[in-house]
Design brief:
With 151 residues, the protein is an alpha+beta fold. It folds into 2 domains: 57 residues, no CATH class; 57 residues, no CATH class. 26% of the residues lie in helices and 19% in strands. The chain is built from 3 helices and 7 strands, in the order ββββαββαβα. The strands form 3 sheets. Strands 4-1-5 form a 3-stranded antiparallel sheet, with no helix packed on it. A two-stranded antiparallel sheet has the order 2-3. The protein has a two-stranded parallel ribbon with strand order 6-7. α2 packs across α3. The radius of gyration is 16 Å and the shape is globular. The C terminus is likely disordered. It comes from Cladocopium goreaui.
Length: 151
């Protein structure tokens, strides 16, 4: 089984032209993004992500913001640093048949690329759910556990 340790959550790669970790590297201007789903129209606006951001995305608006972070095209205008690397960690990396160790190994392989933004998806199989919980615990152990609900 993969052992979780501090080196798993490495410092992100630097972004060209970004001198401050407080500068927005991803932004949705006020009132600029709409998406239609079965539950109606959802709007995400005024969202800024910096290299210091820790975000917990919940609900339809959170899901929409994650889709935009991942670069999936939706209606609206998004400002994104051209070198921004966003990693989507979820059960899809190792597949639905994977055990906890295989999920964690797949996550580790992605994290070795040192992305600036990490999206950790909670949805998946029972083994992924346990791997997800272990990843959250590892983030907290590494002193990076400042989570809030900005979205």
């Amino acid at each position: 089984m993969t052992i979780l340790h501090e080196s798993m959550w490495q410092t992100p790669r630097e972004l060209s032209g970004v001198k401050s970790r407080k500068r927005a590297v991803f932004e949705i201007p006020l009132g600029s993004v709409d998406a239609t789903s079965n539950a109606g129209i959802h709007r995400v606006s005024g969202l800024k992500v910096t290299l210091e951001s820790r975000i917990c995305a919940l609900g339809p608006g959170g899901r929409l913001a994650v889709e935009l972070l991942l670069g999936r095209p939706l209606k609206g205008k998004v400002h994104r640093h051209e070198g921004l690397q966003v990693a989507h960690l979820g059960s899809h990396l190792a597949g639905n048949e994977a055990n906890i160790g295989e999920h964690l190994a797949a996550v580790n392989a992605v994290l070795e690329t040192r992305p600036q933004v990490v999206v950790l998806d909670s949805e998946g199989t029972t083994s992924w759910t346990r791997a997800f919980e272990m990843l959250l615990e590892a983030v907290d152990i590494c002193g990076q556990g400042t989570w809030n609900t900005d979205i």
